[in-house]
Amino acid sequence: METSSHYKIPVSKEGLTPLMQQYISLKKEAGSMLLLFRLGDFYELFYDDAEKASRLLNLTLTKRGFANGIPIPMAGIPASSLEQYLSRLLEHGESIAISEQINENFSNIKNNLVERKIVRVITPGTIIEDSLLPLKSDRALVAINTTKDGKTGIAYLNLANGDFKIVAHSTEENINSELHRLSPAEIIFSETTDINTRQYDFTAKYTPVPEWHFEYENAISYLLEHFRIDSLSSFGLDGNHQNIGAAGALIRYASRSQSKELSHIQNIYIERTDQLVFLDSITRKNLEINKTINGDDSPTLFSILDRCCTQMGSRLLRKWLNNPTQITSTILLRQNAISSLINYFFYKTDIKINNLDLIKSKLKQIPDIERMLSRIALKYIRPREIANLKSSMKLLPDLYSYIKLIKESELIENINESILIDPGISEFLNMSISEDPPVSLKDGGVIAYGFDKELDELRSISDNNSNFIKKLEEAEKAKTGVNNLRISFSKIFGFYIEITKSQLNKVPSTYRRLQTLKSTERFTIPELKQWEERILSSKEKAISREKFLYDTVLQYLMNKIKEISLCAKSLSELDVLISLAEHSYINSWVPPIISDKTEIIIDNGRHPVVEVNTKIFTPNDCILNDEKRMIVITGPNMGGKSTYMRQVALITLLAKIGSFVPTKKATIGNIDRIFTRIGASDDISGGKSTFMVEMIETAAILSASTNRSLVLIDEIGRGTSTNDGMCLAWSIAERMINFNRSLTLFATHYFELTQIPCESQNAINVHLSAIDSGDDIVFLHEVKLGPANQSYGIQVARKAGIPIKVIENAREKLNNIDTINTKTCISENRSQYKNKAAEENIYREIKSINVDAITPIEAINKLYEIRDLVNKLE
Ligand SMILES: Nc1ncnc2c1ncn2[C@@H]1O[C@H](COP(=O)(O)OP(=O)(O)OP(=O)(O)O)[C@@H](O)[C@H]1O
After folding, report:
1. Which of 295, 323, 530, 602 has CB 3.0 to 4.6 Å from 622, enough for a Cys bridge?
2. In the predicted model, is pLDDT for residue 566 greater than 90?
3. How far is it, in rounded angstroms, from Cα 25 to Cα 35?
């Protein structure tokens, strides 16, 4: 077995072949990334890289020559299957540098060595290839800049669609929630900061980059150069050092990955997170927006709503769900658009054709234009993709005319205006790109006939080939008298004249022999050779002319990028709105009233995900407002407490993205944040117990929730002793009512906590009802006023299949505990009552003293009496 030292790359280039010396130089450049070194039809990996790739990709680890007598470990992958291997390496979180043979023209080769360069670096956050990207989600690249004076800057870039943003108001505390909101594939940070990747509860590739990339001066000059401007003030970015540091480092890293300028990134936006409804990372998880608690893709809020026809639409829907907004005008525009779509699709009786299907069928034919744009800008786009773009452009006028019939929505009107882009683009693509282009430019036939005269002439030469050959064949037959003379083509000899051996005596001396076969001989003549050169050079010239013209087409599209990108954005917006409208209609969702008070009023609310997976869902109401800020929820296990709480949060969230909601009626007020503390999970790898996790999450809620926040707290205090747990839960509830004053749903199994509404008029008790029929329990899932009168834990355990003996034993123990508790309660109550009476007596005594009239002796005696009364207190 070889030891790992065999895989170590040599420190010096001495004794290495020129090829390996070239490899070592490029590997130094690639650093810790895997270097795919192009050698003919293969990409090869050497030393450590070979060992790693063979392990991760299941490749044979072999050897390629020797370095100073030691075999060089090597693994290779065929160039034709590159993308498939790349995707597997990326899945393992690897970053890859690709080196290509740059100048294969023989006259330029020095020392028999083709020049090679790293042309591309692919890291999880810098992918633009469609085949490597998830279809329905983005893979952002995030930069976190933590400056020496403790400030935090966050910037993010979606290289595949060119979205480049700075996150305003970033702080160390909200990094986690930002990471969950943006869901990046890769995070870059300064190698000198003590960023402890484990402190962020988000899984991604964490890549350190040199500190100077984040330094303000370097970052700003890189950004100015990138945008070719003198000041960042036009982006509203002046002076914010930490954000500019993050943005500069980010664009430098992304540009380097492509070894090209990212000319399609023409703007940087500031994202005002204070205008969003804040959701921390735990809340995003608990509400199962993108993934279920178990990490599955469905059923989630996204999965049930995603009826989108385009991938762009699905990605935008995910974005909306993860960015609920506090801007009422945005919400109302979307709500109004959904209403108009529903009216048009489902209630318009004068339209005979099914317009919903018609529009959806058009949308389904639209490719991922958004992602194409960056591939156009970086010139990675394949001819067939441009052909797809061309065909989709043809669909737009029809789509426009259908949408035009939808009235009374400003948003739909705006969307439609951007859908109808300059018809010149479609015309240009029709003229320039052939109907069915080949996969690769090298094969020729990408540019349409009639687009370029020079190309057409070059093509006509080869098109004339069969004519010319036929004529020459006839002429040579006549000249030589060889009737069966034939002109053919082979890859090795090019064009040749074939003559059977029996006719050889007729071959003229001007014929030059090329090859002798069993029964024939092959010859060439000067006319044939000249023709061959003309043909081959015209083919070569035609391909290079096509490459040039293809670049011209790309350049044309680059100049139209803003317009096409706006069109793509509008198509995705339309797709999301149609998806929401269809779901709302089918499931009887309604538009909520958006109010500016702090309130949530839900009439017959349902859980959006549970309702589609349950035969009969019991709707429930919820009223939270300035007067009733806390609802204490009790009821049996499995009674529906968590579902009820989550549905209130999800209805609020849906209202805040401008969607309709699963209710009969709803008013959703001015909510700034949603927090949840639901269920028990421990973080063993992070060294935290269930109880610790619970307390950390609750501490975060207590410190960050405001009087405009919605807070869900489910069964707090379970992980410790009953008394500690109950008292903590009680005290936390009191803090929420009296200090944070958030709108709070507080579910608990501690019946003692149903006292809270007696102490505070801002709280009420509700319970989830159930019927106990002795042997069985039936959950009604109905929220009723007042506290639950029993816990049903034992009945639920019985239903779950706990052995009957264990159940009976538990019942017995419960009876005993109840008797002890009742006794204690009675005696405690009695003594409390007695004390109260004695205190009142003392109070009366003191109050009855007439201080102005009493003599000193009487005063002393009174004092003795009062002391005796106090002594009687227990
Ligand atoms: N309103 C409802 N209508 C119909 N089915 C419901 C309703 N609410 C809950 N359910 C069903 O009951 C199941 C249990 O609900 P849920 O988890 O909310 O109960 P719970 O009271 O929180 O239980 P536990 O206290 O054990 O956590 C859900 O999975 C759902 O299928």
Report:
1. 602
2. yes
3. 11
Known binding residue 153? Answer is: no
445 is in an annotated binding site: no
d(CA 554, ligand 1 centre) in Å: 56
CATH of 593-799, one of 3.30.360.10, 3.30.590.10, 3.40.190.10, 3.40.50.300: 3.40.50.300
- 291 marked among binding-site residues: no
- One fold for both 4-122 and 453-553? no
State yes or no: 635 annotated in a binding site: yes
Pick from 643, 714, 751 the residue to mutate for probing ligand 1's pocket: most ligand atoms within 8 Å of its CB: 643
Task: Name every protein residue with a CB atom under 6 angstroms from any ligand 1 atom.
Answer: 610, 614, 617-618, 635, 637-643, 768, 781
Pocket test for ligand 1, best of 614, 617, 648, 795 (most atoms within 8 A of CB): 614
Rounded average pLDDT over 597-615: 95
Tell me which fold the domain 306-422+560-586 belongs to.
MutS, DNA mismatch repair protein; Chain A, domain 3 (1.10.1420)
Q: Give me ligand 1 centre to Cα 779, in Å.
A: 9
Q: How much distance in Å is there from the Cα of 638 to the middle of ligand 1?
A: 5
The domain ranges of the chain are 4-122, 130-275, 306-422+560-586, 453-553, 593-799, 822-874
> For a substitution probing ligand 1, which of 286, 610, 784 has the most ligand atoms within 8 Å of its CB?
610
Select the highest-mean-pLDDT range: 187-196, 228-237, 385-394: 385-394
431 is in an annotated binding site: no
pLDDT digits (tens, 9 = 90+) for 507-563: 999 999 998 998 999 999 999 999 888 888 888 889 999 999 999 999 999 999 889
Centroid of ligand 1 to alpha carbon of 639 (angstroms): 5
| Higher-scoring residue by pLDDT: 351, 98 | 98
Residue 73 known to bind ligand: no
**Ligand 1 center from residue 637 Cα (angstroms):** 8
Q: Above 60 in pLDDT, residue 639? A: yes
Distance (Å, rounded) from C-alpha 184 to C-alpha 159? Answer: 11
Backbone angles phi, psi at 826, to 5 degrees: -65, -50
789 pLDDT higher than 80: no
CATH of domain 453-553: 1.10.1420.10
Of the candidate ranges 266-275, 317-326, 793-802, the one whose mean pLDDT is the lowest: 793-802
Tell the CATH topology of 130-275.
Nucleotidyltransferase; domain 5 (3.30.420)
Instruction: Find the 746 Cα to ligand 1 centroid distance in Å.
Output: 15
Nearest 5°: the CA angle 782, 788, 794 is 100
Q: How far is the CA of 768 from the centre of ligand 1 (A)?
A: 9
* 3-class SS string, 630-655: EEEEECCCCCCHHHHHHHHHHHHHHH
| Residue 692 marked ligand-binding | no
Which atom of ligand 1 is closest in space to residue 620's alpha carbon?
Answer: 1
Classify 4-122 by CATH class. Answer: alpha beta
Angle in degrees, CA 350, 356, 360, rounded to 5:
155
The DSSP element (H or E) to which 693 belongs, if any, is: helix 690-704
Q: Measuring CA to CA, which residue among 225, 219, 212, 267 is closest to residue 240?
A: 219
**How does pLDDT run across 414-450, given as a tens digit for each residue?**
999 999 889 999 999 999 999 989 988 888 889 999 9
Q: What's the CA gap between 41 and 278, in Å, rounded? A: 52
Residue 754, judged by CB atoms within 10 A of its CB (0-12, 13-18, 19+), counts as buried
Residue 626 confidence (pLDDT) above 70? yes
For residue range 62-86, list pLDDT tens digits in order.
988 888 888 899 999 999 889 889 9
Share of the chain above pLDDT 90, in %: 51
Which value does ipTM take for this structure? 0.98
Tokens of residue 859, six digits? 């005063």
| CA–CA gap between residue 3 and residue 390 (Å, rounded) | 56
Integer Cα distance of 625 and 591 in angstroms = 20
Atom of ligand 1 nearest to the CA of 796: 26
